[in-house]
Task: structure prediction
Amino acid sequence: GTILQSTDKGITWNALTTGVTNALFDIDFPSNDTGYVVGMNGVMLKTTDAGITWNAVSTGITTKIRAVDFTNVNHGVLVGDDGVIRRTVDGGQNWITFPFSSFYDVFDVKFRNDSIGYLMVQFDAYKTTDGGINWYKLGPELRSVKYLNDTTLIAVGDDMVRKSTDGGFTWTSQHPGQAPNWYDCAFPTQDTGYIC
Result:
């Protein structure tokens, strides 16, 4: 249940008290004060004071929650094992199941806004342009996707890094070597990126 916080651009890190021992897998701060973290056994925590206190959020999930993404402090989506995909429009007080059927683990979710979003499922990647009502298959297994701008995306999965310049409809692939599997990527600027 460890969360570390830096207030000096990553020079030093301080542990925050979460009150849980569960492994945590993903964290998202849609504002400076409000943040969400998810993890093992369906755990989800929320802070509204920039991490000083964390409170449990009831999701009704008991399996691993792998990822969470909020477009603002109220609108968010979480995904996890066994095809779990749920959405909230009230900051986590209530959750509804997405109309998406999968028994496979869902690795990641990213929404550009309340309409456009991406799911990274165990064997495929999907895109929605209508807030999750309909999903379109994009391609083979991807684990994480990041936006560089409205149309340019970088995604990783297996031993490849993929790039799309048309919102995910077509992809080019690179094999950077060094690792048999890539799990996540970050692009703090359009020119500088990291994969692990």
